[in-house]
Specification:
The chain is mainly α. Helices cover 46% and strands 5% of the residues. It is globular, with a radius of gyration of 23 Å.
């Protein structure tokens, strides 16, 4: 499927990678192994000898002590720390995939994701209700962040966080940022919230069910059950979920108000849209904007219209709480992904409007069918999700080469007809 679901999910929150993520619905680095298992066995993510890195660690120790880290915490946290070559490779070779809103939703809130999510949502509904009572954030919204960030805890990451952030601090491209993450990670160890061995996450240091980086964890994580530890690493997602809701509460979540909803634009709609173009709801009503499926727009203060496909395609009115979601990741696609996932978890149906055909002339359903047919013919296009990326393009190229066709890797109606 090209850019995988999990590459899109990896540490997507601004909490997770502050400064690593550039927004816009990107394909992002892989989080790692599922669940709260052991560290990665990939040699590129296991400590390897590097004399310059080791010297940097020794030089860091006085700075760590000056930042308030005890000698004991330095010794425990840095014992076994090592250079991770895979982390540097990932950092230097982040490919920016500017996914359409349609593709982004397919990758983070597809049928498989929703199937997993509904089960996890049901299992955690009681604690999510308790969290809502405390912070005012609806259970489905908190759970949606969980889904988009770690596929409901099935992708927590398996890379040693201290080694990862130390490697990036030493490498130097964003040295100051990652040294701050290293300091915070060691303070987490010092505070007794977890151990170095349990502190696993993404290649850039994002941790837990809702992917906090160490500095954000220090400032915003909460001990919801009062057991003395802010535990975001175990299979129990309670503290992660509560920390996310607390974060939203701190940034002004308005209890009882929606994030947004799908709207229908009138034919000939010409007003500029985008999350920064906010008007009163009455002004949007006067322009003919209506709730998708019928009905007037509810008024929750000034709102923006996001219409990536223009009139006739899915569009949304975005209220204040949408901007709060963006504090987690300043990407409109991310906010739409969380909002859409939350609506589906709450029992809402799929989008009422279609995005239509893309530049290849294929709808998402046709692109999914193309992937299914390529797989059936023995050319691996990955999980059929209707998203065309490098994996699907490679499968098309292999099929074209095997059948004496011009090799260009491009999907088309003609190719779909041939495969049928």
């Amino acid at each position: 499927m090209g850019v995988s679901r999990r590459t899109v999910l990896a540490g997507t929150g601004a909490l997770a990678l502050a400064g690593c993520v550039r927004g816009g619905g990107l394909g992002l680095p892989e989080i790692g192994a599922a669940g709260a298992g052991g560290p990665s066995t990939d040699p590129d993510f296991m400590p390897q000898p590097n004399a310059e890195f080791d010297a940097w660690i020794q030089a860091f120790r006085p700075r760590g002590r000056a930042a308030g880290i005890s000698e004991d915490a330095l010794n425990r946290g840095l014992r076994g720390v090592g250079f991770l070559p895979g982390v540097v490779e990932r950092d230097r070779n982040q490919t920016e995939f500017r996914r359409s809103t349609e593709d982004y939703l397919a990758l983070v809130a597809g049928d498989d994701d929703l199937s997993v999510g509904r089960g996890r949502f049901s299992q955690q509904r009681s604690v999510l209700n308790d969290i809502e009572a405390t912070y005012g954030v609806p259970p489905e919204v908190t759970a949606a962040v969980w889904g988009v960030e770690s596929r409901f805890g099935t992708r927590l990451g398996d890379i040693p966080v201290i080694s990862a952030v130390a490697t990036l601090a030493w490498e130097g491209r964003r040295g100051r940022f990652f040294e701050a993450q290293l300091v915070s990670a060691l303070k987490i160890i010092q505070n007794g919230d977890t151990t170095p061995e349990q502190m696993l996450g993404s290649w850039a240091g994002a941790m837990g069910h809702t992917q906090f980086i160490p500095t954000t964890y220090e400032e915003y994580a909460v001990d919801f059950r009062g057991d003395g530890r802010r535990d975001i690493w175990s299979n129990d997602p309670t503290d992660s979920l509560a920390s996310t809701a607390s974060y939203f509460n701190r940034f002004g979540w308005r209890r009882g108000e929606p994030w947004g909803l799908e709207v229908q634009l009138p034919q000939g709609f010409s007003a500029s849209t985008g999350r920064d173009n906010r008007r009163s709801v009455s002004a949007w009503r006067d322009l003919g904007v209506r709730r998708a499926g019928g009905g007037s727009l509810p008024d929750h203060g000034s709102a923006a219209i996001h219409a990536p496909g223009g009139a006739g395609a899915p569009a949304w009115i975005l209220y204040h709480n949408f901007n709060v979601i963006l504090r987690y990741n300043n990407s409109t696609n991310y906010g739409i992904g969380v909002g859409y996932m939350s609506d589906r978890l709450a029992g809402g149906g799929p989008l009422r409007q279609s995005f239509g055909a893309d530049t290849s002339g294929l709808t998402q359903a046709q692109r999914r069918e193309l992937q299914e047919l390529l797989n059936a013919a023995g050319f691996d296009a990955g999980t059929p999700d209707g998203v065309i990326g490098p994996g699907t393009e490679a499968a098309i190229e292999a099929y074209q080469a095997a059948n004496g066709l011009p090799v260009n890797g491009e999907p088309s109606l003609a190719l779909l007809r041939r495969l049928r």
